[in-house]
Amino acid sequence: MKKRFSPLLVLLPTVMATFTYLDDARAEVSPQTLKSISTPSKVQTPVGKLEFFDGVPTDATVDTLYDNLDRMRAVSVFLDNVGALSVYSVIAGNAAIGLSQPNQIAVAQKLLDSRSLYLTGNSSTMYSIGHLDLQAYGPTVVEVPPGMLGMLDDAWMRYVGDFGVAGPDRGKGGKYLVLPPGYTGVVPDGYFVLKPPTYINWFFMRGSIADGLAPALKNIKENLKVYPLKLASSPPATEFVNITGKSYNTVAPSDFSYFEALDKIIQREPVEALGGESRGAIAAIGIVKGKPFNPDARMKHLLTQAAAIGDATARAALYSPREKGYYIYPDSDSSWVMGFANKNVFFESGGARNLDARTSFYFGYTGVTPAMAVTHPGAGSDYAIAFKDSRKKAFNGSQTYRLHLPPNVPVNNFWAVTIYDTQTRSMLQTSQSFPSVGSQSKGFQKNADGSFDVYFAPKAPVGKEGNWLQTLPGKSWFAILRMYGPLQPWIDKTWRPSEIELVK
């Protein structure tokens, strides 16, 4: 009788060798190492209890983890694109009051007041605001009046270039030509050329009112022009819409509609406007150029949660910055901060992006230009912002506070203090349509020693009506001290304002 070979016998040495090898491998790896690369069967985390079978997630755990991943990515997308949503909202807000074309310019003819919601707008200079649509209109000319201070930012509110005093025209006025992404056509002579990476761009210009409102408005209306290059020989008239006293919103949403607006931006702008990592994060939550954004019930729920978390995180970054580079007087326990951490308008150092600084700025302010951060003695402007009082407490609109400014406020032009709503980050809406006081204010009183006091309260302290900014019980607020033409004592900090103190 022939012996038959059993397949089991043939395979047995191999199997045994394998087990031997495995045993040897386990013997060479310490228990600590094995523990570090393995996962327990149950793990308690902030997103809930996670369960595994020998390292393999259960179905319920998989669902939990993907929900968490989608939510985290959506929060990051929210925080990383606040600038884009701000530009989108400014343009949409202006369109709602009839400013839908590039040759239509918003002008605060009697200064900006609190009825319109603009991030930290002021009532001390005359604003001109507009946008360019390079996809629809092609290369576009912007004729800048003399004496203006302004800039052009792209669809993500990234700096493109300056107009006016800080720009190549040096305040003399001039013609700027803004070219679409990828433009390869002829560039005629006689223009200052700007090349943004996006189709939609917005501009913001400030005109001095030192000689009065009428001359400032005349300068803008006679000299500010926007038109397509192809119509340069016979440009259409530029239209101006007065936004003083108009009640409308330009502040970005902080709910699910945030992502709906972001989808519109992604569909409109060229792929090259964002890097692959940024675009990948946006695509991961369902926003892809050329495809409809139609999240299911689960994803819409997660995006709604992410918007709430993103909004809360942005508010923390704005109102309680943790980076020392925000604080103007780091040598003391001062609450005064600046808008740009370390005065860095590009939010980048050593090749690394300062993500919190970028979110903080875009959530609270508009307009990115080095001219807003680099201080030149006697020229431009500089800002000090107070979100907290001298005790590092949020301001309470039911109480009375005082800001003391020592004598000889170091400005070449003027200074002003403006009060803002912590919800909208826009001028606080009270019975004072222009919630600002300062060296240009009528009835503003100087103390006997040349110093000044500004009061914040629901009712004016007796005899201090001209130095009073109204607050609202039940609401918080914050203040910005603007220095126009700051002088050396401000720059070197030998002159400094007091903290804003609670008056007991």
Classify the fold: give the CATH topology of the domain at 318-502: Jelly Rolls
The residue-averaged pLDDT reads: 93
Helix content: 25-40%
* Terminal residue distance: 112 Å
Biggest sheet, spatial arrangement of strands = 8-7-11-5-4-13
The CATH superfamily label of the domain at 318-502 reads Domain of unknown function DUF1214, C-terminal domain
The largest sheet is:
6 strands, mixed
- What is the strand content? 15-25%
Q: Regions with pLDDT < 50 over 5+ consecutive residues?
A: 1-22
Shape: globular
**Radius of gyration in whole Å, from Cα?**
29 Å
**Can you tell me the CATH architecture of the domain at 318-502?**
Sandwich
What can you tell me about this protein's structure?
Helix 3 crosses helix 8, helix 3 crosses helix 9 and helix 9 packs across helix 10. The strands form 6 sheets. The protein has a 6-stranded mixed β-sheet with strand order 8-7-11-5-4-13. 27% of the residues lie in helices and 23% in strands. The chain is of the alpha+beta class and 504 residues long. Strand 2 and strand 3 form a beta hairpin. Among the domains are: 160 residues, Domain of unknown function DUF1254 (Immunoglobulin-like), CATH 2.60.40; 185 residues, Jelly Rolls (Sandwich).
